[in-house]
Amino acid sequence: MQTAIPVQRKVTRPRADALRNRERIVTAAREMFVEHGPDVPLDEIARRAGVGNATVYRNFPDREALVREVVCSVMDRTAAAGETALAENGDAFAALERFVHTAADERISALCPMISSTFDQHHPDLEAASRRTERIVEKVMERAKAAGQLRTDVGVGDLLVAVAQLSRPPAGTGCLSADRFVHRHLQLFLDGLRAPAHSVLPGAAVTLEDLRRA
Predict the structure, then answer these.
(1) What's this model's pTM, rounded to 2 decimal places?
(2) Where do the HTH tetR-type domain residues begin and end (predicted)?
């Protein structure tokens, strides 16, 4: 009996210009979501990206798909910054500091509120990006703790909550006008994370599970 040989299917790869258009749309959407919120008209996003409305809908069939892609891309870049910090061979706390400031620049705190009850928070892409980011943040903190530079009574949840709160503009202020304060206040927070600790924190270290239950 002759064994059938499987037919190799040709995989069609997106053209380079199509990929660039998609990247431009995601970048423009991120900027406008941060500046104006999730209800910004899609045609305004298309205009900023320099593409037609049809190109936006060809890549993202609805607003939810675009919001999800923006949030995932921000988490992916945050995770990449964490990987860069882990690859550094120098001062572990300095690497943690650089990671935190880079993560704040991604403005993920301004994007997270868009994931409302109507948004599929358990979409596989979103869950995978979230888990990857959390694992890397944990490793960056563990390395600083192992070096005796990061106080031991703080958890990943403590860091993520602080970065989110400190990089989110106060009520009544514009995102962009408050940006000049973000890194100053983040550095004050980071100085408080250094070991040895100069005070006893109330409560217990906040874990990722605590955040999920909140």
Answers:
(1) 0.78
(2) 19-78
Residues 156, 198, single domain; the answer is: yes
- The domain containing residue 50 runs over which residues? 15-61
Six-digit token string for 126? 């979103």
Name the residue type at position 186: L
Closest Cα to residue 155, out of 180, 128, 137, 175? Answer: 137
Q: Can you tell me whether residue 90 is helix, strand or coil?
A: coil
- Could you report the per-residue pLDDT of 162-208, keeping only the tens digit for each? 888 887 755 444 555 556 788 898 999 999 999 999 899 999 999 88
The region, left, alpha or beta by phi > 0 then psi within -120 to 50, assigned to residue 133 is: alpha
Distance of CA 210 to CAs 99, 139, 214, Å? 22, 18, 6
Domain CATH for 192 = 1.10.357.10
20 and 103 in a single domain? The answer is no
Which residues partner with 150 through β-bridges? Answer: 194
d(CA 47, CA 49): 5
